[in-house]
Write a structure and sequence with these properties.
32% helix; Jelly Rolls; alpha+beta; 257 residues; seven-stranded antiparallel sheet; single chain; three-stranded antiparallel sheet
Amino acid sequence: MKDIVDMVDEIIVGKGYVLIPELLSPTQAQEARSLVLELAEKEKPLGKVLLDDQRERIYGLLYKGKIFELMVQHPTVIEVIETIVGKDMTLGTFSAHILNPGATNMGVHVDYPYWTMKPPFPAYPVLEIQVIWMVEDFTQENGAPVFAPGSQKLCSPPDLAHFSKIAEKVIGKAGSGVISHGLCWHDTSVNYSQKPRVSILGNYAPKFVRPMKNPLDDMQQEVIDRATPKLKQLLGYEFKSDIYKDVQRIWSGNWNG
């Protein structure tokens, strides 16, 4: 495995992304993939799966399986991201993305919050890091992500002509992860295979960036009860908890300012 400093350097001033193999075992990757597909089938009739004809997205994944709790706070992933955005960071989203057979490109983009801002985007501080978990082999045929190396240094919205000239498809084995700068232009590719291709996406940001989705939506108390301090921090739960305690002290007459 690459040294943390080397990976951080690659993300900030190099290609804008790194591929890290063997973050999960093959068994863990298969468990995560199977659970995502089960959840999709169960939640579609309930209207909880955001979908079109080609792709499906499942949010609130963290509360739907212990394997996801492990992934979202994987120590290697956390160490890389904390080195870039600081230890006091929060989770923006943690979701599953299913590319069905025949799914075409999603569209070249930068990540939130950059796409909500007017260019030129700020080079520093880094406002978002994304992790793409490969819970199955990502191949040339099944819709692997495509990145434009070095584009994060341009601090601009994607230029489609330039993207088409320099973009690289990132393939890897099940259990691998791609950690990328939020400003690095990227897209999905076409899923030419005959089965759905599943990825899990985690987005992390400094605490001052408002999460794209509230990570405490659909919160399951049993997950919070067994959560590590790091997971509670990622969810913003320690902040919620402090406010709750302050309100309780006010109500009880024990508030001292």
